[in-house]
Amino acid sequence: MVGRPGGPLADAALWQLEVTDAISLTPSFRRLVLTAPGIDGLKYLPGQDLMLRVPLSGDRVVNRRYTIRRFDSVERAVTIDVSLHGAGPGTDWISAARTGDRIDAIGPRGKVTLRPDVDWHLFLADETGLPGALAMLEALPAGSAARAVFEIDTAADELQLDAPQTEHLDLRWITRDGQTVPGDSGPMAEAAAGVEFPNGVGHAYVAAEAGVVRGVTRLLTERGLRSEQISGKAYWRRGLPNAEHGEPTKEG
Questions:
Q1: What is the pLDDT of residue 250?
Q2: Residue 244 falls within a domain, yes or no?
Q3: To the nearest 5 percent, what fractions of the chain are helix, strand and coil?
Q4: Which DSSP symbol is given to 130?
Q5: Dist. CA 228–CA 7, nearest whole Å
Q6: Rounded distance between C-alpha atoms, residue 247 and residue 237, angstroms
Q7: What CATH number does residue 180 fall under?
Q8: How far is CA 50 from the centre of its chain?
């Protein structure tokens, strides 16, 4: 850990990360395991991310945010699983990363984390939001009631869930299989319309393309969830690259 940056990231630390392992999980997902001096002191909540300072030509960098998939303080290892859908400096660096490569990062960041005061949880995510959703699912107390709908390209991209207890989890995978394209709101909206809400007070976490997040949020509201019961996070915007600060750019 180098220190704490000023400005809006005052609560996040600057880390000098080193890649200790890099593997392909599926045709569309790559895993990096990283370490850093002092990383055993990392304080984060499942669902939060690290903002990697991806190097460009010269001395320039571009920021890209990747959700922490797993953290092991004993092994001093932080794991990120990255969807390689789309091209860009972030996915290019992730794809080429090898053991010993170094990169700076700022974090943890992010406000979308588990709500502890609810009776059930609903996760709806495409492949970009999948690692964060899995991290939150795995952090649920044993016996928690949860529903999850995950959209991926093909069945080969299913990622393993290492949950402490799964008998109260209803998990559904949606595969596009060339019938739809990433960012098409149809499959996720149809799934959100049909998912069964358990009894009690719940919370929904929606993580996908910006337009899909808006549409699914509106649908869940129409089904009776209040706005404070829905946490939406747009990981990307169809047809537009991420801005340099690591967020989806605004249309126009």
A1: 37
A2: no
A3: 20, 35, 40
A4: H
A5: 27
A6: 9
A7: 3.40.50.80
A8: 10
Q: Tell me: the pLDDT tens digits for 47-78?
A: 999 999 999 988 899 999 999 999 999 999 99
CATH of residue 51's domain is 2.40.30.10
Q: Reduced to 3 states, what is the DSSP secondary structure of residue 142?
A: coil
Distance CA 61, CA 56 (A): 5
Judged by phi (left if over 0) then psi (alpha if -120 to 50, else beta), residue 95 lies in: alpha
**CA 33 to chain CA mean position, Å:** 16
Mapping DSSP to helix (H, G, I), strand (E, B) and coil, where does residue 80 land? strand
Integer Cα distance of 72 and 79 in angstroms = 9
Q: CA-CA distances (angstroms) from residue 115 to 134, 147, 149, 178, 220?
A: 15, 14, 18, 35, 17
| pLDDT tops 90 at residue 206 | yes
Residue 243 is assigned to a structural domain of this protein: no
- Report DSSP letters for 14-48, one per residue: EEEEEEEEEEE-SSSEEEEEEE-TTGGG----TT-
- The whole-angstrom separation of Cα 130 and Cα 174 is 12
Statement to judge: residues 22 and 64 lie in one domain: yes
Classify each residue of 135-162 as buried b or exposed e, where b means 16 or more C-beta atoms within 10 Å of its C-beta.
Answer: bbbeebeeebbbbbbbbbbeeebbbeee
Query: Rounded to whole angstroms, how far apart are CA atoms 165 and 215?
Result: 31
